[in-house]
C-alpha cells in the first residue's frame, strides 16, 4: 500500500514514519503542497495524510486536486482545535481528521480503518493488491514484493507467480502452466517449467531446498500454499 504523507514539520514526518515502518506500507513524503501534488500525479497512492497548513499549497488545495481524479481516503492533520478546518475539510471530501498533538498509534488505526472501508465499497480496487504471507502481488504496477523488497522477475516468472498467488491451494499441471503463461501448445518440455520454478523459488523462499510457498505435487505439477 502506498501512502502520501504531506507534512512540513520534519519531526512529525519522522514520528509517523517510525510507526508506519512496522506496517506493509510504502510512504511517500512531501514537505509542501506542491510536492504532494507531484507525488500524487506520478504514483499510485492508496491513502493520503495531509497537513492543513503547508507552503505553496495548503491541504485543502491538495485535497481538491486529489478529488479531481480519485476517491482514495484522505486524513487531515491540523494544529487548530476548533471546528473550522474540520468542517471545511470534510466538506471538500476528506474522510477523517486529527488534531495535533495526536497519538501515532491512533493514526495508524485510523489508516487501517479507512483502507478497509475504501476497499469494502470499491471491491475492484482490492483485487489489484493480493497478499499471501510475506508476498504481495500488485497487479496494477505488475510488481511482486517479498516483504518490502521488490522481486526482480522476468516476464514469464511474473506471470507464473501471478497465476499461482491469485489461486492459492490450486494445483496446476505443467501443461496448464505452460499453456497459460507461454500461450502456446505444450509438447512435454518439462525442463522449461522446472528451470523457471527453480528460479522463482530462489527469489521467494527463505530456503529454496525446503519451500514454504511454491510446492511440487509429484507427478502432477505445482501449487502455491495458502499462507496467512
UniProtKB/TrEMBL annotation:
DNA-binding region: 127-226
A Pfam family recorded for this sequence: Trans_reg_C
Domain Response regulatory per the UniProt entry, residue ranges: 2-115
GO CC terms of this entry: cytosol; protein-DNA complex
Source taxon at top rank: Bacteria
Keyword match DNA repair: no
4-aspartylphosphate found at: 51
Keyword Plastid attached: no
GO BP: regulation of DNA-templated transcription
Single GO MF descriptor: transcription cis-regulatory region binding
Annotated Gene3D superfamilies: 3.40.50.2300, 6.10.250.690, Winged helix-like DNA-binding domain superfamily/Winged helix DNA-binding domain
Domain OmpR/PhoB-type: 127-226
UniProt entry keywords in alphabetical sequence: DNA-binding, Phosphoprotein, Transcription, Transcription regulation, Two-component regulatory system
SUPFAM superfamilies tied to this protein: C-terminal effector domain of the bipartite response regulators, CheY-like
Its biological purpose: May play the central regulatory role in sporulation. It may be an element of the effector pathway responsible for the activation of sporulation genes in response to nutritional stress. Spo0A may act in concert with spo0H (a sigma factor) to control the expression of some genes that are critical to the sporulation process.
UniProt-recorded name of the protein: Stage 0 sporulation protein A homolog
